[in-house]
Design goal:
By secondary structure, this protein is an all-alpha fold. It has one domain. Helix content is 70%, strand content 0%. It is built from 12 helices and no strands. It has helices at residues 3-8, 14-22, 36-54, 56-63, 66-69, 73-87, 97-110, 117-128, 131-134, 138-151, 162-167, 169-194. The relative contact order is 0.16.
């Protein structure tokens, strides 16, 4: 899953949300250097990634992309799934996405000191381009994938992956909808078990 899903799956706990958001920047046992609630978020993130990577529906989605995108198929599916979450946001959360995203940016800004340096550097770009809100449209997804394609050192075709999304839109959305219900239930149980 990508940023929006990880944030959403954290629930209402701000520390868990921050931990989940920064988790990819925290390697190995370095999570132990953080407060208990942030540790919980980091461990939740890792569990979500494991659950996602092993799920048959996610594998079905990535398989559709393998021919054109190989190694990057999983990364692209993560972005596609955030698109479906953003597009159908009202099914998952009572607050409008724009309001939810705005509150999240404020949360990060008031806790800047706990964010790893790379996240601190990324935040102004993320906010000015409003990545999380842009996920709601295929045009926004296209922009994100083009930016990612340029940042990756190895040759890739992520910049044209939106064509695959449009070609198999219904199938991707169906995979996401069924999978995300299972992931929501898994995440809720995981948060309880980490308490």
């Amino acid at each position: 899953m990508n940023f929006l899903a990880h944030i959403y799956l954290s629930g209402e706990d701000e520390g868990v949300t921050i931990g989940n958001f920064i988790a990819d920047s925290i390697k190995g046992k370095k999570y132990l250097n953080y407060s208990e609630d942030l540790q919980k978020g980091i461990l939740l993130h890792r569990s979500i990634d494991t659950f996602t990577d092993q799920h048959p529906l996610v594998r079905q989605s990535t398989k559709r992309l393998h021919e054109n995108h190989g190694h990057y198929s999983g990364v692209i599916v993560d972005i596609f799934y955030d698109h479906f979450l953003a597009k159908n946001w009202e099914q998952y959360h009572p607050a409008p996405l724009s309001e939810y995203v705005s509150q999240f940016y404020k949360l990060l800004e008031t806790n800047l000191e706990v964010l790893p340096p790379n996240i601190q550097n990324m935040l102004p770009i993320m906010k000015s381009n409003n990545w999380l809100l842009s996920y709601a449209t295929t045009r926004g997804i296209n922009t994100i994938l083009e930016q990612m394609s340029r940042r990756v050192k190895h040759k890739n075709s992520m910049h044209i992956a939106t064509a695959d999304l449009e070609k198999h839109y219904t199938e991707f959305e169906k995979d996401f909808s069924i999978f995300f219900e299972e992931l929501r239930a898994f995440s809720k149980h995981k948060i309880i078990s980490l308490s």
